[in-house]
Every structure is written in structure tokens, then in C-alpha cells.
Amino acid sequence: MKKIIFSLIYLTTLSFNSFAETKLEGKLEPFLGKPQLEIQPVFRGERFGNIVVTMKGTVLATWGTSHVRAKRSEDGGKTWGPEIVIAKPGFQPGGLTVNETNGDIFAFIEERHPPAPITVYKSKDDGKTWNKVDVKINPDSNGNDPSMHMNEHGITLRHGKFKGRMIRPTRWYAGKNDRSLWPKHYTNAIYSDDGGETWETSDPFPAKGTGEATVAELSDGTIYYNTRRHWAEEGADPKRRWTATSTDGGKTWTNLKFCKILPDGPQNTNYGCMAGLTRLAVSGKDILVYSNCDSEGGRKQGTVWASFDGGKSWPIKRLVFAGNHAYSSITSGRPGTKSEGMIFHHFEGGPKGGSAVATFNLSWILGGEKTGDGELPSWIN
Taking the mean position of all CA atoms in its chain, how far away is CA 97? Predict the structure, then answer.
């Protein structure tokens, strides 16, 4: 019996150490080379997608409003396995989060369109199986409980004082999902320092009327926050995004700015649209990629923008898909895996409806259109 227990402890420790020693950020070169773009249908019907890359380099996409399911790609997005049910029934709220210290993956499932009860599921085997876990999510400084719907994936902080902290964007509904209350909504985030057992909720984002946010950690440990405006009463023309930053690990948000270059969905409304955001896994470089529709009317013209200075400027963009393109999620490949050097963009729409995943590299984006918002850095040429 002692030998069996020792073996289990050894294997657990070995697994933990293997992730602890995994190179989280690599070189720029794998994202360059020959331009590549491939678009594949992934899910049928329903809505709400999210996408992450696991510690083993598996691309993991989730989806669904009647029940939440996942698909895995172990070959860098070239092929996809069968659907895996995470929760049935269940409502997809986004925020899929990979714990980069041990490889665990967290899925936050709501009972219905929020406000609604939340159940958290965890996978310890690279997204193959999922189990309910008991967690505690504490309210924000206003005493409000966060909703998970419908935010971009979470991240694990890699730099500075809060290294190892998991954080994912969240939001607060001002009562029920009543249109008259939309201008009072606000976004925030939840974060955990104990492996996902306890989650604290950040202070509210410093602008109301917001919902469906994104986060990315910059190389100095600053957290960049970019949010949909949902139904903001001010600044409706042009319809652009709010951004802010955090230097205390996501507890508070400062440096509020109105991003004039990034569209918040179709420009004929101030209703906005969920966007995707990721920082490429490149050491010492703050390359961000943002996704949304880029149209005067209707959720279409799916486009990505690239920033090379941590979101201060967005000098280039490129059309991914001209047809229907609504909510989207985007993530970076991991060094030393089959996903390395690629960017994975999961969006509602695509050639067959439902959802699709576009797989491309930075070289492909660089072949796009200059926006006039800053210049490409010399080191990218």
C-alpha cells in the first residue's frame, strides 16, 4: 500500500513539475514564415464560442446554449475530434481558463441566460473529461456577485508579483437582462491564487454600460483590459471600445481610455459585439491580436487587428471572413507544441453557419491593410 501511495505522489509531482518547467513564451520566428490561413467549420447550431490552447498544445474549443460541449484538436487545428459534453443542460458563458501551473482547465457554466446560478467544471486530463468542482466566488466591492456571460477566455499571469494567478473577465447585470438597465451594467474580473478553489472579484471597471470583456497580460505584468460597451450612453459615435489597465494583479482598473481604432461591432448601432483578444506567446514582446466584425451594418466582415506595443496602437488589420461573423474568441499557440506559431480564432458564422475556427499566423496578418494608427515596428520586418 505504501508503495502504491508513493507512486501516486511521485506521478502527481512529476506531472506538476513537467508543467512548471514548460516554456510559456518563446521566440517570434515561429509566428512568421510563409503566410497561412485555414478556416474549418467546427460546431453546428446554437451560439457562444470560446477557445484556448492547453498546456500540452491541444486546441480546445467550447460551444452551446442548450448544453455546453467541447472539441479538441491535437494537431494544431488541422483536424478536430468528436464532441465532448461538459454540462447538459448548460449555458456557455465563456471564460475558459487554463491553469498554467498544473494544466487544469476550468469551464464556468451558467444554468441559463444570466443572471443565473453558476457551476464550475474542471478537466485534469487535457479537456478529455470534466467534473463538477466546489468553488467559492466572492462578490465585488459593491457587494454584487459576478456573472460569467459572455466573456473572453481567462489567463494565468506569468510575470511579476502575481505570477501563477488565474484571472478571467466577468460582468455584473443591474438586475435582470432588462434593456432599460443596460447602461448601468459594468464589467470586472475574478481571480484565484489557490488553484481555482476561491475566486475574488475585482473592483468594477471604471465605465458603466459595459459587458463582455477581454484580458491580456503584458510582459511587465500589467493587465490590459478591453471591453464591449454593450449599451453605453456616451460616446456612441464612433462606436469603439473601452480599455483600462491594472498593475495590482487585476484587483483595480485605471488608465481608462476610449480606443478610437477598434470597432465594437457593427457601426450602425451602439449595441456592440463580443470580441476576442490574445497576447502572442512571444518572450519580451507585447503583440496583441484583437478580433471583431468590421462592418457598417450587420455582424459580418470578421477581421483581426494586431498591436505591437501592448494595445497603444493597432497599425494593421486583415479580413478573416467576409460573411457572417458575430461573437468571437482568439488564442495563441504554445511554444514547443504542435500549436506553436499559430493563432486560433473561433467565431460564430463561417462557411456553414454554427461556428468555425480560423487558423493563421502573424505573417498572414502582416499582409493586411494598414490602419493609420501607428507604424509597424522595425523588428517585425
Answer: 8
Task: Tell me the pLDDT tens digit for each residue of 26-59.
Answer: 999 999 999 999 999 999 999 999 999 999 999 9
Torsion of CA 353, 359, 365, 371, to 10 degrees: 30
- pLDDT averaged over the chain? 92
171 within 8 A of 212, measured Cβ to Cβ: yes
CA distance 303 to 190: 28
d(CA 278, CA 160): 19
Between CA 240 and CA 292 the distance in angstroms is 11
Cell of 122: 474542471
* Model pTM above 0.90: yes
Judged by DSSP in three states, 14 sits in helix
The structural architecture, per CATH, of the domain 26-380 is 6 Propeller (2.120)
Q: Is 165 helix (H, G, I), strand (E, B) or coil?
A: coil
Name the strands in the sheet holding 198-201, side by side, starting at the edge strand that comes first in the sequence.
136-137, 198-201, 186-192, 166-172, 155-156
Query: How many CB atoms are closer than 10 A to CB 332?
Result: 25
Question: Who's near 168: CB < 8 A, 6+ residues apart?
Answer: 95, 97, 108, 151, 153, 154, 155, 189, 190, 191, 215
Higher local confidence (pLDDT), 138 or 16 = 138
Q: Cis ω on the peptide bond leading into residue 148 (within 30° of 0)?
A: no
| Closest alpha carbon to 106 in 140, 37, 155, 174 | 155
Cell for 115? 443572471
